[in-house]
Amino acid sequence: KKRIVSGVQPTGSLHLGNYLGAIKNWIDLQNTYETLYFIVDLHAITLPYETQQLSKATKDTAALYLACGVDPSKASVFVQSHVRAHVELMWLLSSATPIGWLNRMIQFKEKSRKAGDENVGVALLTYPVLMASDILLYQSDFVPVGEDQKQHLELTRELAERVNNLYGGRKWKKLGGRGGSIFKVPEPLIPPAGARVMSLTDGLSKMSKSAPSDQSRINLLDSKDVIANKIKRCKTDSFPGLEFDNPERPECTNLLSIYQLITGKSKQEVVEECQDMSWGSFKPLLTDALVNHLHPIQVRYAEITSDTSYLDHILAEGASKAASIADVTVNNVYQAMGFLQR
Ligand code: TYM
After folding, report:
1. CA of 240 to the centre of ligand 1 (A)
2. What is the ipTM of this complex?
3. For FRET with 314, which of 190, 216, 249, 265 sits at 20 to 30 Å CA-CA?
4. What are the CA-CA distances from residue 70 to residues 34, 36, 219, 250, 313 (Å)?
5. What angle do CA 49, 54, 60 make, to 5 degrees?
6. What are phi and psi of 148, to 5 degrees?
7. What is the pLDDT along the chain (342 residues), one digit of tens a residue?
8. CB 282 within 8 A of CB 232
9. For residues 3 and 140, is the Cβ–Cβ distance under 8 A?
10. Enzyme catalytic residues
C-alpha cells in the first residue's frame, strides 16, 4: 500500500481553510492508503506561544481530527513530539540543507518580517527541515496539503534527492547498508478546489489562524450564531448576480467555492443555482450549509473530548506504530552517513 502523511499545527482552533485544504481530503485517503496523521506540536513553538496552552491545544486538535472523520482503526493518529525520530532526523537533514534554500522560503520571509527579523528564533528558519523530516521518516508517497505548503514540499523533495545522492547507493552499500536510495521522494497532493480558502474580510489574502480578526475566518467549532454573524458581515461587492472566477470579485469566487465544497455540489450546479441570486439570498443559504456540515463534527468533538482516556489511548497506539516505521529510517540514515552503530 502507498503511504500518506500529513499534519496540522495545534495553534488556536482549526478553521475552514485547514479543513477544506487538508483534513477533509484525509478522510477519503484513509480508505485507500496507509495513512499517518499527526499533530505538529514541535512546529508550534517556532513563534512565541503559551506553554500553558500547548498540551491542551494538541489534544483538542487530535480530537478534531477524529471528529472530522479520521478513523483511528484505519489511520495512525499521533503527536509529533511523541516520536523522537522527528527531531533526530531533522538534525541529520539540516547538515545537508543549504541555508540558501531556507532563506528563500516565502513563509519564513513573511513570518520573520512580522515577528521583527533579528529576534526571531532559529527554528523559524529551520522549520522546513523538520517538516521534511516528518515526511521522509515514513517513506511517504503522497502528502495532502493546501497550496501554502507547496514550497515546503518542493524543498522536501529536493532534500530527499540530495541526501540520496550524497549518502545513498554504492556508498551506503560499502558501509554495510542495503544500498539504493535512502528516502522515497514524496509528491504533494493539492486539491483542485479548496487549496486556498480566502479570508472572509479580504478575498485576496488567505484564511489564517494568525490573522488578528476572528471575523476573517470560520472556525470548525464556531456556534451557529457566530457563523451567521460572520457570514452576514463578510466582505461582498455590488455586482449583479453571483459568479466564479471574475478577477474583480475574489470574495464572490471564494464564497461560492466554500458553498460548493461544503455541500458537495459540482461547480456547474452551483453556477446554475446561484448565478441570479443576490447576496441577500445567498448568505443565509451559505450559513445553513456551513451550520449543517459543521454541526455533526461539533457533536462528535464534544463526545470525544468528554472521554479523555479514549484519546490518550489512540495517541499512544498511533505513536508506537509511527515510531516503529520512523526508527528504521533514522537508523538507516545514521548508517549511511557513517555513524558508529550502537
Ligand atoms: P498549518 O497548520 O498552517 O495548516 C494545516 C493544513 O491546512 C492547510 N491550510 C489551508 N488550506 C487552504 N486554505 C487555507 N486558507 C489554508 N490554511 C491552511 C495547509 O496547507 C496545511 O495543509 N507546516 C505545516 C504543517 C506540517 C506538515 C508536515 C504538513 C508540518 N509537518 C508534514 C504535512 C506534512 C503547517 O504549518 O500547516
Report:
1. 35
2. 0.99
3. 190
4. 12, 10, 18, 32, 15
5. 130
6. -65, -10
7. 999 999 999 986 899 999 999 999 999 999 999 999 999 999 999 998 999 999 999 999 999 999 999 999 999 999 999 999 999 999 999 999 999 999 999 999 988 888 776 788 999 999 999 999 999 999 999 999 999 999 999 999 999 999 999 999 999 999 999 999 999 999 999 998 889 999 999 999 999 998 899 999 999 999 999 999 999 999 999 999 999 999 999 999 999 999 999 999 999 999 999 999 999 999 999 999 999 999 999 999 999 999 989 999 999 999 999 999 999 999 999 999 999 998
8. no
9. yes
10. 111, 206, 209
Closest residue by CA, ligand 1 atom 9: 18
∠ CA 110-153-83, nearest 5°, is 100
Task: Give ∠ CA 165-171-173 in degrees, rounded to 5.
Answer: 120
The span from the CA of 75 to the CA of 3, in Å, is 11
For residue 3, the cross-strand partners are: 34
Q: Is the Cβ atom of 267 under 6 angstroms away from ligand 1?
A: no
Q: pTM for this one?
A: 0.96
291: DSSP letter = H
184-238 residue pLDDT tens: 999 999 998 889 999 999 999 999 998 899 999 999 999 999 999 999 999 999 9
Q: For the residues of 29-92, what is the DSSP string, one character each?
A: HHHHSEEEEEE-TTGGGSS---HHHHHHHHHHHHHHHHHHT--TTTEEEEEGGGSTHHHHHHHH
145 Cβ inside 6 Å of ligand 1: yes
Q: Which residue has the cell 515514513?
A: 138
**Ligand 1 proximity of 196 Cβ (cutoff 6 Å):** yes
Say if ligand 1 is within 6 A of residue 44 CB. no
